[in-house]
């Protein structure tokens, strides 16, 4: 399956590529497009305006709106960052230096 990357030259992608990009099925993407829930560009052959045509999703608009949502999100949304630990081993080393026993995963739990 093709994969959308940041180096994709076009901001317009097929439903299949967009589905892979956001973790949905192509069918779900087509339903979202039909319900006007996506930034869709519809292309038809000018010689056959009644033909089916193709749809493309503007990935750049999707990404820009996602960035906008983050910029207006309240502090409670950004609080998820406070719950991440990026230095687990360093914490154990610090506890050892302080003379405390390093905690291990599952320590203090009773066996089932």
UniProtKB/TrEMBL annotation:
InterPro entries (UniProt xref): Cox_sf, Phage_P2_Cox
Basic residues compositional bias, start-end: 102-112
Region named Disordered: 89-112
Pfam family, one: Phage_Cox
Descriptive protein name: Regulatory phage protein cox
Species lineage: Bacteria, Pseudomonadati, Pseudomonadota, Gammaproteobacteria, Enterobacterales
């Amino acid at each position: 399956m093709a994969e959308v990357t940041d180096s994709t030259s076009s901001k317009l992608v097929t439903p299949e590529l967009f589905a892979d990009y956001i973790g949905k099925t192509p069918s779900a993407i087509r339903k979202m497009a039909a319900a006007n829930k996506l930034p869709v560009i519809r292309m038809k052959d000018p010689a056959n305006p009644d033909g089916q045509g193709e749809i493309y999703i503007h990935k750049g608009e999707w990404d820009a709106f996602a960035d906008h949502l983050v910029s207006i999100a309240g502090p409670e949304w950004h609080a998820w960052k406070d719950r991440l630990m990026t230095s687990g081993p360093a914490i154990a080393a610090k506890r050892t230096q302080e003379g405390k026993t390093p905690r291990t995963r599952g320590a203090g739990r009773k066996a089932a």
